[in-house]
Amino acid sequence: SQNKKLDVALTIRAEDADALITDPNHRMAVTGTADSPWLGGKMPIDSGEFNLLVSTVDPRKKEMRYRLFLRHSDGTQRTIAGVKHVANDGGITDIWDDTTTLFTSIYKGHVLPADEPIADLVATGIIRIGLFDFIQEMTTFQVTGPTPAARLNALTRFTTLFLGKLLDVYGGLLSTS
């Protein structure tokens, strides 16, 4: 059937800023909940992974990938896989669309990326984040560390990574030629 809702509330966490920055897959752990009739209601995420702006075959294109493992209310395993395609194909407003549009699939079982073509697909759809949700999301960003200097260093390095990856994709929009 059509038009069933999927809401996710996620906490994305990197324990080590150095590892996050040097890992080409920019892996972070995900916890939270997913709520949908496709899952039998609101269910906790058992484990998950988020990859921040990873490179694709084309260096001017990046992806943000989500993979969430959880259970349906009947106890069977489910996987939610999502991807945001970040590519400069529509001007400056395209940045907003790219970073707030998540193409999502729900699979039966514990499905890894290589297994998706043969996995039992339950549903596909798009999750979009609204402006006010995005603003609220930004207020929850936290950096921890043993000292204020360490926290500032981690925040600066993360911001540099994030903005640098976006410039890889959208940098041509900022040129004067």
Structure description:
The structure is a single chain. With 177 residues, the chain is an alpha+beta fold. Helices cover 25% and strands 40% of the residues. The chain has helices at 17-22, 94-100, 131-138, 148-170, and strands at 7-13, 27-36, 41-55, 61-71, 77-87, 101-108, 121-128. A seven-stranded antiparallel sheet has the order 1-2-3-4-5-6-7. A hairpin with a 4-residue loop joins strand 2 (27-36) and strand 3. The longest helix has 23 residues, at 148-170.
Helix and strand arrangement:
Elements: E1 7-13, H1 17-22, E2 27-36, E3 41-55, E4 61-71, E5 77-87, H2 94-100, E6 101-108, E7 121-128, H3 131-138, H4 148-170
Antiparallel strand pairs: 1-2, 2-3, 3-4, 4-5, 5-6, 6-7
Short characterization:
By secondary structure, this protein is an alpha+beta fold. The protein has four helices and seven strands. The chain is globular.
Structural class: alpha+beta
Shape: globular
Whole-number mean pLDDT = 80
Distance between the termini: 50 Å
Radius of gyration: 17 Å
Which structural traits does this protein have?
globular, alpha+beta, 7-stranded antiparallel sheet, 40% strand, 25% helix, 177 residues
